[in-house]
Q: What sequence folds into this?
């Protein structure tokens, strides 16, 4: 009986693996982009479709199409409309989800732009958008049949925007393709943007595991032109006319720099094949933001730009959580319910700790791990993280996801980044 069960499991796993790898059976070389709106408040979430477009490039993965890394506050699933088989899955996060944890969301309803992209299907598919309700539980928000012959699918005409190849080492289907987009750079600032993009690339590639896999990374600089130079600072009543409308003071937090204009952002990213989007803001003011599988945004000229660049990309590329916390309340301190396990790989409420870094702990390690000279250098369970002082834990005393003085990602964060690189390129 045991041998039979093992054999059936092996056959099923082998069949699933083979089934998932046949990219050309289901998709062509272009991308399908779906624009929609997340609408609601702290207790409600709805999805409203805006439009569907076909874009020139699909820069994402060609393998592991139906494999799930269990990352993100939301996910999409594509089902073959005839067989019902799942042919693609991908997680993502949204600024909307962060806003839901703010006090404003308890009394106000809002709408946020959101976009998703996946390989363009050759036959009809069912698109499902789902919201995470627990570490491994999901709620369906939206379901829609997409036919590739639908005449209302927009055939996009790429914008005329200068593009410079910063580094290209391999073809897009085997690479991590990063679209670096100019924000707050006027036409006169184009050369400055290219230099800033080059510096961003050099900063990123000096950090592990990006250094190890730099031969799998392509970086494109998209010189989007803004009417005004610099970035909007609402707290000073200083608003700029910029390419993707980014601004500080997101959720009334002075240093939180994001853009609400997702559609404009994707229009620019679509000029190249991409796995990741990095918005480079033409400002010296400290700040930035990173949203998993969506975008990272950082100030180009701040003295801590090197540190912030890598930190924010940790969020957007690998789904790493913030490990810092404040003794006083943080604007996002309502993001996590410590009764549930967070999905981010580098923080844990210990509810399902066996699915995090528990197996890497030394025998007899104390939980919570006390801070001393020996524990600061090894994997532990240090209390404080995810904006919370209590009930949330991180794997190392310090890491680039906690402070700007940490020279590197910790071992656990490096493993998460490496897993994503391999997932997208192998």
A:
């Amino acid at each position: 009986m045991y041998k039979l069960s093992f054999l059936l499991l092996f056959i099923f796993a082998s069949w699933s693996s083979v089934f998932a790898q046949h990219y050309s059976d289901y998709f062509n070389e272009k991308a399908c982009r779906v624009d929609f709106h997340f609408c609601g408040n702290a207790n409600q979430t709805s999805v409203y479709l805006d439009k569907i477009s076909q874009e020139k490039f699909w820069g994402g993965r060609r393998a592991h199409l139906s494999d799930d890394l269990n990352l993100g506050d939301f996910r999409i699933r594509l089902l073959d409309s005839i067989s019902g088989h799942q042919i693609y899955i991908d997680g993502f996060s949204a600024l909307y989800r962060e806003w839901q944890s703010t006090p404003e969301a308890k009394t106000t309803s809002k709408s946020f732009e959101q976009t998703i992209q996946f390989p363009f299907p050759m036959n009809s598919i069912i698109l499902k958008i789902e919201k995470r309700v627990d570490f491994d539980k999901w709620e369906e928000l939206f379901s829609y049949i997409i036919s590739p012959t639908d005449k209302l699918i927009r055939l996009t005409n790429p914008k005329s925007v200068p593009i410079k190849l910063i580094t290209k080492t391999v073809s897009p289907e085997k690479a991590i393709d990063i679209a670096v987009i100019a924000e707050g750079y006027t036409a006169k600032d184009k050369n400055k943007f290219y230099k800033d993009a080059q510096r961003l690339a050099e900063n990123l590639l000096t950090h592990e595991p990006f250094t190890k896999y730099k031969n799998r990374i392509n970086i494109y600089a998209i010189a989007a032109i803004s009417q005004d130079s610099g970035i909007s600072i609402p707290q000073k009543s200083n608003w700029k006319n910029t390419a993707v409308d980014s601004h500080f003071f997101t959720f009334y937090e002075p240093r939180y720099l994001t853009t609400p204009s997702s559609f404009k952002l994707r229009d620019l990213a679509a000029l190249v094949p991409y796995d990741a989007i990095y918005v480079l803001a033409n400002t010296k003011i400290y700040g930035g933001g990173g949203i998993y599988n969506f975008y990272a945004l950082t100030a180009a000229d701040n003295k801590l730009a090197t540190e912030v660049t890598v930190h924010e990309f940790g969020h957007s590329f690998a789904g790493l959580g913030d490990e810092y916390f404040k003794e006083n309340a943080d604007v996002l301190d309502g993001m996590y319910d410590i009764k549930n396990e967070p999905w981010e790989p580098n923080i844990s409420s210990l509810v399902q700790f066996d699915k995090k870094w528990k197996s890497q702990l030394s025998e007899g390690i104390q939980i919570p791990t006390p801070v001393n000279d020996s524990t600061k250098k090894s994997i532990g369970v240090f209390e404080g993280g995810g904006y919370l002082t209590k009930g949330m834990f991180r794997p190392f005393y310090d890491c680039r996801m906690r402070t700007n003085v940490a020279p590197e990602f910790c071992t656990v964060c490096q493993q998460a980044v490496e897993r994503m690189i391999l997932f997208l390129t192998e």
